[in-house]
Amino acid sequence: MPESAVRRYPSILAVCFQPIPVPHKLITKRASPPVEWSRNGQWGHVKKTGDSRIYPSASCKSFLNTVHTPNFARHATRTQTLRNSMIRFILTATLLLTAITIQSRAQSTMNIDSLRKEAESNNAEAQFNLGYLYYIGDGVPMSKTEAVKWYTKAAKQGNADAQTNLGYMYDIGEGVTMNKTEAIKWYTKAAEQGNANAQYNLGTMYQKGESVLMNKTEAIKWYTKAAEQGYAQAQFNLAVMYNNGDGLPRSMTEAVKWYSKAAEQGFSQAQFNLAVMYENGTGVTKNSTEAVKWYIKAAEQGLVEAQYNLGTIYYKGEGILMSKVEALKWYTRAAEQGYASAQNNVGLMYANGEGVPMNKVEAVKWYTRAAEQGFAQAQFNLAFMYANGEGVPMNKSEAVNWYMKAAEQGFVQAQFNLAVTYHMGEGVPMNTSEALKWYTVAAKEGLAQAQFNLGLVYFKGEGVPVNKKEAAKWYTKAAEQGFALAQNNLAVMYERGEGVPMNKKVSLKWYAKSAVQGNVNSQYNVGLRYYVGEGVPRNMTEAVKWFTKAAEQGDFLSCNTLSGIHNNKSSGHYNPVKAYAYLLVVKELLISVSKKNSNREYTNLNQVRNKLSHKEIADGEALAQQLLKNINKPEK
Predict the structure, then answer these.
(1) How many CB atoms are located within 10 Å of the residue 592 CB?
(2) Contact at 8 Å (CB) between 342 and 304?
(3) CB neighbours of 299 closer than 8 A, spacing ≥ 6?
(4) 297 CB neighbour count, 10 Å cutoff
(5) How far is CA 225 from the centre of its chain?
(6) What is the rounded distance in angstroms from the CA atom of residue 599 to the CA atom of residue 193?
């Protein structure tokens, strides 16, 4: 082997211990808290708990595997959880019209006394109106008991609105002991008369199986009757059932049809789901413009999932002109409603200066809000900020605290970084056993960096006995995922026969894979294989190619070997100018490492220089300067 060509066995102890920030693109839609029906007829998050109507959606997917996701499905048809006492609230269009009628009468000749007389004379409409006044406390003291009394009188005479309201009061136990059976009885009487509210509420009870055997067929029947009358909630629920094949054959076309009808009435959840259908081309021709249109409508009504997805669409420029400013606007609106995914993304945009001037303090603020909700990705990002003192004073202990919270939720990058902190003793006492534990957890989840570091731990015997076979096993897993450092180290182990049978051919395979990715040690060793013809036919052109790639990264041995090749007339690559240039680079690299040169390097340099003309010397020096300029980090 030529003197300049020395076999390179790179340090097997190279460690990839840098934290891994989660790319923004991996932040995707995650499941949100239930959205419930409020008494003012608007949709929003209601902290109060209670009886609920649940519409399960088999197609609904949660985001955070995420991580992120890995690339995860960002959108999913939304499953609604509707609070029973809210969704069946009686103040519908019909009842509001009745209220207007009462007010109109009050403004003319009708008063409470005359209304009461009519009610006592068995006038069903008057009985209903008097019940309504007692229910809301308008002109009479509020009394749910009196409301039940007068609703009952009107209901027994067949007044459908009274039957609906009486069913509601039995349903939730207002003014009367809760009695679901009575509720169903009165809902049924009103529903059979065509009352859409009653039909809808009856459908929910059959779907849930409340005081009646669960019967999806009956639920669909009553939802359909209400939907055909234009009742938006029923249209939405019917769409969800078609969407999921719940009680009837699955039909995305029918789902789109009913989502559209509800969406056109301004029903925000239907607008959101319709947007999802258009975005994914489910049950309808894929149409990004239509998707954006419906997302905007839902988002403008305050639907947090729509705001979040609209932010993502603007961020990526999907079906709309990319705008980081608009993305931040919609993410912020969702974030201000407490949506953790959006809070995390707002933090990322401030941290990266996307759509807004970079502001690490603001980034920490939003990461913290999401992290305190238990959002693992934000916990990881917040830990990263504490670890590096970005937007907050550096605090390694606090970083460990947040890494731990995310790691315990299975967030693999946090598990890796937590292992690193224990390995290095940053923010916690050095603990190789804990490092091994978390490396193993992350490695088993498939994280290549963790697999690589676990291989290093077994190779060195840190916290465990030295086990070259186990080291090779984990290097192989990381190498098969394309992790260049693992490929390089695995190649070394095959070359030496450490932990695996010696196999020069397999060794070259892994060197080549690592070299293609820019690993300087592998580039040198591939060049060396071609240079000496070991495992492959000798090929000086290929050798020069790989030595050059390594030399461009400041590899001393590659530069030294190239100087010898270019100074050798029989090499087929004789070029004294390049030989001189590479020797100049070698000289500078030696200075950068040890501040001194050996006599041999000076002798070689002078010998080559003495053969050159003044122009060739100038050309060689210019080439050397260019080579040094391209070297970012001289090898130490």
Answers:
(1) 16
(2) yes
(3) 306, 307, 310, 330, 333
(4) 21
(5) 40
(6) 107
Distance (Å, rounded) from C-alpha 257 to C-alpha 245? 15
Q: Are 66 and 26 in contact (CB under 8 A)?
A: yes
Rg, the chain, Cα only: 36
Q: Is 359 helix (H, G, I), strand (E, B) or coil?
A: coil
Tokens (6 digits) for 270: 């239907």
Spatial contact of 302 and 38, defined as CB atoms under 8 Å apart: no
pLDDT digits (tens, 9 = 90+) for 154-184: 999 999 999 999 999 999 999 999 999 999 9
Tokens found for residue 23: 């790319």
Q: What's residue 632's pLDDT?
A: 55
Main-chain dihedrals φ then ψ at residue 36, nearest 5 degrees = -120, 165
- Residue holding tokens 């409508």? 297
Q: What is the mean pLDDT of residues 228-236?
A: 96
Q: Check: CB of residue 345 under 8 Å from CB of residue 331.
A: yes
What residues have CB less than 8 Å from 491, skipping those under 6 apart?
Answer: 507, 508, 509, 510, 511, 514, 522, 525
Nearest to 255 by CA among 283, 286, 292: 283
* 500 contact partners, CB below 8 Å, separation of at least 6: 469, 472, 493, 494, 506
Burial of 445 (0-12, 13-18, 19+ CB in 10 A): middle
Note whether 486 and 452 are within 8 A (CB).
yes
DSSP one-letter code for 52: E
Considering only 2-11, 411-420, 425-434, which range has the smallest mean pLDDT?
2-11
For residue 607, the model assigns a pLDDT of: 84
Where do we find the tokens 């963790």? 450
CB 148 within 8 A of CB 166: yes
H/E element, 37: strand 36-37
Q: Above pLDDT 90, what percent of the chain? A: 71
Alpha-carbon separation of residue 219 from 194, 238, 252, 352 (angstroms): 15, 9, 19, 50
Residues in the chain: 636
Residue type, 311: G
Amino acid 341 reads S
The 3-state DSSP class for residue 220 equals helix
**Can you tell me the distance from the alpha carbon of 456 to that of 483, in angstroms, rounded to the nearest whole number?**
14
Whether 125 and 154 have beta carbons less than 8 Å apart is answered as: yes
Beta strands in 393-446 (DSSP E): none
Pure H helices in 425-503:
432-444, 448-460, 468-480, 484-496
Say if strands 43-44 and 52-55 run parallel, antiparallel, or are unpaired.
Answer: unpaired
Q: How far is CA 75 from CA 27, 78, 272, 583, in A?
A: 12, 9, 10, 59
Is residue 383 within 8 Å of 417, Cβ to Cβ? yes
Type of residue numbered 356: V
Q: Name 481's Cβ contacts closer than 8 Å, sequence gap at least 6.
A: 446, 448, 451
Q: Which residue has the tokens 């980081």?
A: 324
For residue 45, which phi and psi values (nearest 5 degrees)?
Answer: -80, 125
Does an H or E element contain 80, and which? Answer: strand 80-83
